[in-house]
């Protein structure tokens, strides 16, 4: 019994000596991960040897990383109105599954710090199937809704000129056979990245959402990449259809397209199926 109490005391001391840090970790929506770095030092009054001190510091750093991950995960937006924390408060099942995702975090880097102490960098995937956060918080639809069709009287422009994007030269083929969709949301305020975004037209109708897609695929790959420029837009392929959002709705989470652009996206998707292929990128 004495040994158990002593071991518990060492563990608590190690955790207390974790270096306090404000959690500012945010999801990397381009890589689809959350990464944090925990740091810790040993309690000199309890460390018997330098090796023991290093072990205590490492334990403290791991505990600090888990704490940061837990706080960072709770702040992730699932959709425009719901965070992971809100889902955990209303569902014990979600809470248990999210806790399991955090416990399954992998160590991507670690080492002793100059002057003492230890750092441990840990990471969890937002997507990726089993072990990813998406599977715990995105509901599997009971029915896959088909991607909407364009208006019956819609006719595509003869020679579509995409929006100008600095340092990007679109392919010479200006229309047809598109490999993906790029929605430029810049200049409309700060786009709020979410795990389950929606694209709407100006009437409010949804033209793209997780209920239109293969659930297992979006859990593995996510619904879109959030990029700052076209160099990060490889998900949309070599010949993307580029449109510019007219505004952001739903707490700045969901881009809205003009009726003309919405119809063009749906018209081109009939032959290229880039929406079903989740080849979508948001520039923000």
Short description:
With 284 residues, the protein is an alpha/beta fold.
First-last Cα distance: 58 Å
Kindly provide the radius of gyration, computed on alpha-carbon positions and rounded to a whole number of angstroms.
23 Å
- In the residues, how many domains can be counted? 2
What is the number of strand segments? 11
- The poorly predicted ranges are 1-23
Number of H/I helices: 7
- How are the strands of the biggest sheet laid out side by side? 7-11-4-8
Mean model confidence by pLDDT:
87
- Give the percentage of residues in beta strands: 15-25%
* Structural class category: alpha/beta
- Element-by-element helix/strand order: HEHHHEEHEEEHEEEEHE
Report the sheet with the most strands, covering strand number, pairing sense and barrel closure.
4 strands, parallel
Helix content: 25-40%
The coarse silhouette is: elongated
Structure description:
This protein has helices spanning 2-16, 50-74, 84-90, 92-103, 134-137, 215-221, 259-272, and strands at 33-40, 106-112, 118-125, 180-184, 199-201, 206-208, 225-227, 240-244, 247-249, 254-257, 280-283. It has 284 residues and is an alpha/beta fold. The protein has two domains: 2-137, no CATH class; 180-283, no CATH class. The protein has a four-stranded parallel sheet with strand order 7-11-4-8, covered by helices on one side. A four-stranded mixed sheet has the order 6-5-10-9. The model is unreliable at 1-23 (pLDDT under 50).
Set out the fold topology.
Elements: H1 2-16, E1 33-40, H2 50-74, H3 84-90, H4 92-103, E2 106-112, E3 118-125, H5 134-137, E4 180-184, E5 199-201, E6 206-208, H6 215-221, E7 225-227, E8 240-244, E9 247-249, E10 254-257, H7 259-272, E11 280-283
Parallel strand pairs: 4-8, 4-11, 5-10, 7-11
Antiparallel strand pairs: 1-3, 2-3, 5-6, 9-10
Helix pairs in contact: 1-2, 2-4, 3-4
